[in-house]
From TrEMBL:
Protein source organism: Solanum verrucosum
NCBIfam families per the UniProt record, alphabetical: PPR (TIGR00756)
Family: Belongs to the PPR family. P subfamily.
GO biological process, one term: RNA processing
A GO CC term assigned to this protein in UniProt: mitochondrion
Gene Ontology terms, MF aspect: mRNA binding
Domain of life: Eukaryota
Protein name from the UniProt record: Pentatricopeptide repeat-containing protein
Positions of PPR repeats: 215-249, 250-284, 285-319, 320-354, 355-389, 425-459
UniProt keyword annotations, A-Z: Repeat
Length: 504
């Protein structure tokens, strides 16, 4: 550890300072470790709490003392609940509990995470309620990010008119002292573009661009939307419209066009744009080169992918996890699993952290190669590192374990996630329950489903009907009735998810 000390201090003073610094650092590490444990404990207690059978507030009063109610603690607990796909109402209850403590001062991060959890589960009424509450208590916490969270989810789940109405509601009632301008206009456009609703995005642009003068960022948002919709012709037409309107092109503009070509397997056209960037003094970034490495992988040109990876070093950049993931993906696409494994070892040696994409890409390559042992080894490494995979990786692993007669590993994965306070995606439950019921392990299938419902999350009609058949065959009508009642209680308070559970 490097300790910077003024040269005027004598040697004895330096020793005292170094010792003191080490003691302070040791204390800080210990304190951080304790805080991390407290965060995990409280997040797990909240996620495991029976919902909506018992109120959450009394439990919070018992377990959350004023001594641990720091800004970082609250942010981290809500962050864990968000990552664990906890029921949004629980996160909201926790945040409200904290708001009522005089020692706690809310931050935009904690507020935005709570809003995101609610909006993700379509609790829009509660989302508006929370925003109104914050506007009254601490209006400075209402940021562009909170605006973006609500608008993007409303655009995803509700109508074009509902989204415009929400924008107007925020402008007139929630941000009354702020004059909306181009930044807010860009957020509204991004809400539609992120959902690939380009007809609606163009309509908003045509309707409001005279009121909110567009900038290069506005045009890049629309360009990105056309790229995400997969229409390369629309990308190029809109690019020329940008040029015609006199907007200054930047590295983001080029990166979007490069990605559009890469996604279509047109690596040669993407590389021409890459070369053009240097000639127009629009310098590429690590992200630009990462996009090209992905493109080389799509084109199955592994030598070009490696050459582009080396280009990062030539330009005095440092490759990050994203760049390594791009090369890893290229190797996997070329079915070179051995080289991909070597690359992961290199990442570990250089302290480049694995993220979910790293694990997912490598696991997918091993699964496609029918390397059962390799999949199990990497899964165990992931668990040893206490890494929490995202939903699609969990689903992929669950499916692999169940199809390869390793149902115990599927159950182990489920229990690992549950013990971490994580609530798996309902599709994971479908796969696991199917595997358990087909092997006559109905009791375990029932317990997993009960765990899901207790945490305030729906199970699908498919799971219910499967358990219904299995439980009736075993004469377990009481357990079936219990599942039915728990499900009906949830349906009374959860937003509709497009299905209702049938009769018991």
């Amino acid at each position: 550890m490097v300790v910077v000390i003024s040269t005027r201090i004598d040697k004895f003073g330096q020793v005292l300072r170094v010792v003191g610094h080490r003691l302070w650092s040791s204390s800080l590490v210990h304190s951080f470790s304790e805080t991390k444990d407290e965060v995990e404990t409280i997040a797990r207690i909240i996620n495991d709490h029976p919902f909506p059978v018992q109120p959450l507030q009394p439990m919070l009063k018992r377990h959350v003392s004023s001594s641990i109610l720091s800004t970082m603690f609250v942010e981290n607990v809500i962050g864990r609940l968000f990552a664990a796909h906890a029921n949004g109402l629980k996160a909201y209850e926790f945040f409200e509990f904290c708001l009522h403590h005089p020692e706690y001062s809310p931050t935009s991060d904690a507020f935005e995470k709570t809003l995101h959890v609610l909006a993700r589960m379509r609790y829009f009424d509660k989302g508006w309620e929370l925003m109104k509450k914050i506007q009254q208590l601490q209006p400075s916490l209402l940021t562009l990010k909170s605006l973006s969270i609500m608008l993007s989810r409303i655009a995803k789940y509700q109508s074009y008119e509902d989204t415009l109405e929400a924008f107007e509601k925020m402008e007139q009632h929630l941000f009354p002292g702020k004059k909306f301008g181009t930044e807010e206009f860009n957020i509204l456009l991004r809400a539609f573009c992120s959902q690939r609703q380009m007809k609606e995005a163009r309509s908003v642009f045509n309707k409001l661009h005279s009121r909110f003068p567009p900038d290069t960022k506005t045009m890049n948002i629309l360009l990105l939307g056309f790229k995400e919709s997969g229409d390369i012709t629309a990308v190029e037409l809109f690019y020329h419209e940008m040029v015609k309107r006199g907007f200054k092109l930047n590295s983001v503009t080029y990166s979007i066009r490069i990605d559009a070509y890469c996604k279509k397997g047109r690596l040669g056209d993407a590389l021409k744009l890459f070369e053009e960037m240097d000639t127009v003094n629009c310098l590429p970034t690590v992200e630009t080169i990462t996009t090209l490495i992905h493109g080389a992988g799509i084109a199955r040109n592994i030598s070009k992918a490696k050459e582009l990876f080396n280009e990062i070093f030539k330009r005095n950049f440092q490759p990050d996890t994203g760049a390594y993931n791009a090369l890893l993906s290229s190797l996997i696409k070329s079915r070179d699993v051995k080289s991909a494994a070597v690359l992961m070892d290199e990442m570990e040696e250089k302290n480049i952290e694995f993220d979910n994409l790293t694990y997912h890409t490598m696991l997918w390559g091993l699964i496609r190669s029918n390397d059962v042992g390799g999949v199990i080894d990497l899964y165990e490494r992931m668990v040893d590192k206490n890494f929490l995979p995202k939903a699609r990786t969990v689903v992929m692993l669950m499916k692999f374990f169940c199809e390869n007669q390793r149902i115990d590993l599927g159950l182990s994965l489920w229990n690992y996630l549950m013990n971490k306070g994580h609530c798996p995606h309902c599709h994971s439950l479908e796969i696991l329950v199917t595997g358990l019921c087909s092997r006559g392990r109905v009791e375990e299938a029932f317990e997993c489903s009960e765990q899901m419902l207790k945490r305030g999350r729906h199970m699908s009609e498919l799971v219910f009907q499967m358990l219904k058949r299995s439980l009736l065959q075993l004469g377990e009508e009481e357990k079936l009735q219990k599942l039915y009642q728990m499900t009906k209680r949830l349906e009374m308070i959860l937003p509709p998810n497009g299905q209702t559970i049938g009769t018991a």
